[in-house]
Amino acid sequence: MDFTLKIWRQKDAQSQGQFKTYQLTGIGADNSFMEMLDELNEHLIKNNEDPVHFDHDCREGICGTCSLYINGRPHGPQKAITTCQLHMRSFKDKDTITIEPWRAQTFPVIRDLVVDRSAFDRIIQSGGYISVNTGGVPDANETPITTSKANNAMDAASCIGCGACVAVCKNASAMLFVAAKISHLAQLPQGKVEAESRAESMVAQMDKEGFGLCTNTGACSVECPKEISLTHIARLNRQYYKAKQASDYIPDKEEIHEG
Amino acid sequence: MSWLTEALKSSLGRKLVMSFTGLFLILFLVGHMLGNTLLFFDDGGQAFNEYARFMTSTPIIQALSLVTYASIIIHAVYSIVITRINRRARPIQYALNKASASSPWYSRNMGILGTIVLIFLVVHFRSFWYEMRFGQLPVVNYDGSGEFKDLYSIVAESFKQWWYVLLYVVAMIGLAFHLSHGFKSAFQTLGLTHKKYTPLIEGVGLWFSIVVPTIFALIPVVMFIKSLG
Amino acid sequence: MTWYPLIIRSFSKRSIQKILSINGSSTVDEIHKELGKIMWDYCGMSRTAQGLSDAREKIQAVKQQFWNDVKVLGTNDELNMSLEKAGRVADFIELGALMIEDALHRNESCGGHFREEYQTEEGEALRDDEHFAYVGAWEYQGEGNQEVQNKEQLQFENVKLSQRSYK
Q1: Of A42, A46, A111, the CB nearest to C79
Q2: Which residues are CB-contacts of A177 (< 8 A; sequence separation ≥ 6)?
Q3: 3-class DSSP state for residue A3?
Q4: Most buried among A114, A123, B45, C136, using CB within 10 Å?
Q5: Minimal Cα–Cα distance from C44 to chain A, Å?
Q6: Which of residues 185-214 of B touch A (CB under 8 A)?
Q7: Distance between CA B208 and CA B219 in Å, rounded?
């Protein structure tokens, strides 16, 4: 298969970027999208041109690193997969493919298609965990939990933090990401303990980072490679409002986490 | 109470305000629609004029009116604040963005739809609310039950103009799309979703967003048609 | 020992500078794939003394190719994924060479190391516990020098070594 690739090139965070067009021929239909880009880069390097920088790691859909906006959709045209799971058979021969990085104020471009997603890390650091003393291990069967809650928590836990939700959201909101973490932990007994403060601190950090506000268009869930549901956002809303009216936290008076 | 203002300034706090004001306005629409169906009566406007007097002289209605005006203003102002925050969150746009693949157009254009409704409201308020409050309306007498401002007459006069009727119909189409996203969005924002009840809420919402604007739009259309005969 | 990190940094900085200056004709991925093929063919699931010995030479050729002919564009002062990959491939070459050495040394079949010369009649792994019941830990001897093998003998007191049966 042959393709015309319109790719965003940007030298570094301070430079203006622009689109460059490349022609690529002889790509196998069963090549993955990234193998196709590797092929392009081989040609570029041989021609002494800087290869296209793009994020990738596991290349099997689980690490959340890959992040390309392909022909107007995060992770390309297929449902419930990441960029690395996309194959060239999803395109037609001679197609023009436009490739851009995730666009958001909170995800500044580092180089070419690579963006800085450390905002997500800071949100998780602000409360996306459970505070537990290590040491003795209680019998897991002493902590009862219904199967449906455990399954629901597992669904939420499958978020890989890729940021496609932010990328596709017209408001660049991180609600689905935050909601996935909140929903994952709050439904489990160990996570319930800090559910209130977790909701407050993660939303506070999310706002501080500069993500937009959720207006419930639902695009995030449609494009999520792990199909995280909007019901998790509803749960986050409930927890946040409950926490805001009833929790002990008063801003500017104390830190959210006492421990 | 600074924790409260902090909370209301957070992203979710602002969303909450949009949700509450939106839901109140939805309730207002129900009442307003029911009252205005009196315009369909073939009684020369008596039922409607009596209703208009009731609405403008009863304390509890007047209190609710103030809440309604406040809701409109807060809903519109907050929408502008929120839109500005959201625009700042994506300073560089995509060259190619297939947004319709993941969400319906009206969910992404609530601001434009709301603006259509707002412009309509300005015209609508000026035409009727203002005249009722501050204008020189003709007066009519019904069987000695006193004098009533004849609001009906200016409504009927206005709806003799095809372009005015068209304005209302277009605005009601805008309202319909605005509601079809807004209704369920308000519930989602409040976190009021549940496997058992969300399908019902969405069903009611869809029905509501079609039926209510249709009835509203029918009033000027029917009155226009009647005026031709 | 605060000078230790400084030494490591200066070593790695020198390697990085070297890699960037070669400007040859082979891309990192090309060399990576050649290395991979050697390891897959000769040091994979099934190994032979001859194969390993051939691989030993081939991998030295790949090492030469890397340090004389690799082409890595860009600098060390920017995000440079080619450079990152090159550093990893340089390490993989070292590791691969050592794996081959280790496989050649171990004249038995044991666990994931299967030498075709050492198998039972049924084709199962044939261990030589008398001579090879140890963990081989290879010690770095500096650039260009052969690693030295340290043997950590395996002593079994309560459990006796035996032959696993899948029957």
Answers
A1: A111
A2: A120, A123, A159, A161, A163, A165, A166
A3: strand
A4: A123
A5: 22
A6: 185, 188-193
A7: 17
- Angle among Cα A146, A147, A152 to the nearest 5 degrees reads 105
Smallest Cα distance from A53 to chain C, Å: 7
Of the candidates C25, C73, C79, which has its C-beta nearest A114's C-beta? Answer: C79
Q: How many CA within 13 A on the CB side of residue A248?
A: 7
**Residue A58 touches chain C, beta carbons under 8 Å:** no
What amino acid occupies position B82?
Answer: I
Please state the ipTM of this predicted complex: 0.93
- Output the six-digit token pair for A43: 């040609």
CATH match for A117-246 among 1.10.3210.10, 1.10.1060.10, 3.40.50.150, 3.30.420.40? 1.10.1060.10
Interface touch B94/A103, C-beta < 8 Å: yes
* B106 Cβ contact partners less than 8 Å away, ≥ 6 residues apart: B113, B177, B178, B180, B181
Q: Is residue C83 a part of any domain in this protein?
A: yes
- B159-163: which pairs have CB atoms within 8 A and are 24 or more residues apart? B159/B219, B159/B220, B159/B223, B159/B224, B159/B227, B160/B223, B160/B224, B160/B227, B162/B224
Beta bridge partners of A96: A4
Scanning A114-173 for CB atoms below 8 A from B yields 168, 170-173
- Chain A residues in contact with B191 (beta carbon < 8 A): 234-239, 241
Q: Was domain B12-88+105-228 assigned CATH 1.20.1300? A: yes
> What is d(CA C151, CA A257) in angstroms, rounded to the nearest whole number?
51
> Which chain A residues are Cβ-neighbours of B15 within 8 angstroms?
213-215, 237
- The reply to whether residue A105 touches residue B91, judged by beta carbons under 8 angstroms, is yes
Touching B: A residues 89-108, CB under 8 Å: 98, 100, 103-106
Nearest Cβ partner of B89 from A8, A71, A211?
Answer: A211
Q: Identify the bridge partners of residue B177 per DSSP, sorted by sequence position.
A: none
Q: Where are the domains of chain A?
A: 3-111, 117-246
- Report DSSP letters for chain B, one per residue: -HHHHHHHHSHHHHHHHHHHHHHHHHHHHHHHHHHHGGGGSSSTTHHHHHHHHHHHH-HHHHHHHHHHHHHHHHHHHHHHHHHHHHHHT-SS--SS--GGGTS-GGGG-HHHHHHHHHHHHHHHIIIIIHHHHHS---EEE-TTS-EEE-HHHHHHHHTT-HHHHHHHHHHHHHHHHHHHHHHHHHHHHTT---TTTHHHHHHHHHHHHHHHHHHHHHHHHHHHHHHH-
Determine the residue type at A8. Answer: W
Cα–Cα distance, B3 to C154 (Å, whole number)? 65
pLDDT value at A258 more than 60: no
Per-residue pLDDT of chain B (229 residues; tens, 9 = 90+): 778 888 899 999 999 999 999 999 999 999 999 999 999 999 999 999 999 999 999 999 999 999 999 999 999 999 999 999 999 999 999 999 999 999 999 999 999 999 999 999 999 999 999 999 999 999 999 887 888 999 999 999 999 999 999 999 999 999 999 999 999 999 999 999 998 999 999 999 999 999 999 999 999 999 999 999 7
Please state, in angstroms and rounded to a whole number, the distance separating the CA atoms of residues A135 and A147: 27
* CATH code for the domain in which residue C59 is found: 1.20.58.100
In CATH, which of 3.40.1190.10, 3.10.20.30, 3.30.450.20, 3.40.720.10 is domain A3-111?
Answer: 3.10.20.30
What pTM was computed for the model?
0.93
- In chain A, which residues have their Cβ closer than 8 Å to the Cβ of C82? 45, 51
